[in-house]
Specification:
CATH class of the largest domain: Mainly Alpha
Number of helices: 11
Radius of gyration: 26 Å
Number of domains: 3
CATH architecture of the largest domain: Up-down Bundle
């Protein structure tokens, strides 16, 4: 920039620079104008902002948007309240313990923290029944880790502690969850937003409608275990209630980028492709 500024004004090159949106989490909105002015001074430039709103309004789709309200979910009123407190205590203990040095030890805290965090997320978003299912998965996963022969005794003991915690969660939930075999029995343990979702799905039952109104929907969630358990929940409801047999549900885990270096990346990409293919095939079959 200094070299350009030393050139005569008539010989200074004019450079066009393009960038992504300037509105992001890195710059507070109240300081945006100040930073743009400083950038103009430093680069001896002029900043012009552009908007896609005109193009979007002209060429974009105009879907009908409906906001569905639901009440807040209070775990204290169900059997999940105690589980919530226990998991929070265990997670804090696991995070604060200084028993392991990641530079020298195989650190068992990561899978245990993940087990607690994922179970908590599922408990808060999908309810105790889904948390019961996830606790069984993590109980088996942590048990597998304890069987690895190269681990130190201290590491195995810590993993066994995590496995025991998930066993306690499972056994606390099991007496009420195991006996559920109907949607009515499940509803008291579901967040209101999940109940509202089921009500919306029931509206599209082709047997109860005089006019055909096909449904193809995508439900976005913020964690892969929430997506998995919501899919399991819908499949069980379809099995229990014949009026929901028209639902064909599946889930896909977020994957982006072109790197296929790891087996996990390849597996996620393959699952995405398989699910997208099945959705297209199902839509083509019913059109």
């Amino acid at each position: 920039m200094d070299r350009i500024m030393r050139e005569p004004k008539d010989f200074q090159p004019r450079i066009l620079g393009l960038t992504a949106s300037l509105i992001n989490d890195k710059t507070p909105p109240n300081r945006l104008e100040e930073k743009l002015s400083k950038l103009e001074r430093v680069l001896n430039s002029a900043i012009e902002t552009a908007s896609d709103l005109v193009a979007v309004s002209k060429y974009g789709s105009r879907p009908s948007e409906i906001v569905v309200s639901s009440s807040s979910y209070e775990l204290s009123g169900s059997c999940g309240g105690d589980i919530l407190q226990i998991l929070e205590i265990w997670r804090k203990f696991c995070s604060s313990t200084q028993e392991f040095d990641p530079n020298f030890d195989i650190d068992p805290r990561k899978p245990i923290q993940e087990a607690f965090s994922r179970t908590l997320a599922v408990l808060r978003q999908v309810g105790p029944w889904a948390a019961w299912k996830v606790s069984q998965m993590w109980e088996k996963e942590l048990h597998k880790l304890t069987r690895q022969s190269f681990l130190q005794e201290k590491t195995v003991d810590f993993l066994l502690m995590g496995e025991t915690c998930m066993t306690i969660v499972r056994k606390m939930l099991e007496p009420k969850m195991r006996s559920i075999r109907s949607l009515e029995g499940l509803k008291p343990y579901l967040p209101n937003k999940v109940v509202r979702l089921i009500e919306i799905l029931s509206y599209f039952n082709p047997e109860s409608r005089t006019t055909q109104s096909p449904l193809c929907g995508i439900i976005f969630v913020d964690q892969r275990y929430v997506a998995y358990t919501l899919n399991v929940l819908l499949k069980h409801i379809c099995r229990w209630e014949s009026r929901f047999k028209f639902i064909q549900s599946d889930f896909v885990i977020g994957f982006s980028g072109g790197s296929f270096a790891s087996d996990d990346s390849q597996g996620l990409h393959k699952r995405q492709a398989d699910v997208c293919y099945n959705i297209k095939a199902f839509i083509s079959l019913h059109n």
